[in-house]
Specification:
- There is one protein chain.
- With 85 residues, the chain is mainly α.
- It has a domain of 27 residues.
- 54% of the residues lie in helices and 0% in strands.
- It contains 4 helices and no strands.
- The longest helix has 20 residues.
- It starts with a helix and ends with a helix.
């Protein structure tokens, strides 16, 4: 009895026949759908690189780094009000 508690029999998952049919139908549909899809190509679209992307005032990176005066002031204000609680 003690060994059965320590080492129980492995669980067996029974899948109903309907579930098997649904899985097979879904697999057939997915393979057919993928075969009908055209290859996705990115056309020759060029974006101008912004070298100051992380210095912009509404950039999340600037908000995290605190290199913009607005976010530096916001950090000081937030830390100051959190410290007074």
């Amino acid at each position: 009895m003690l060994l059965r508690v320590l080492f129980p029999h492995p669980y067996a998952v029974e899948v109903s026949r309907l579930r098997q049919h649904l899985d097979q139908a879904h697999l057939a549909w997915a393979t057919e759908w993928k075969a009908r899809q055209t290859d996705f190509k990115i056309e020759n679209i060029r974006f101008v690189h912004d070298p100051l992307w992380n210095k912009r005032i509404f950039s999340l990176q600037a908000a995290c780094d605190g290199e913009v005066w607005f976010w530096r002031a916001t950090h000081v204000f937030a830390i100051g009000t959190a410290g007074s609680i």
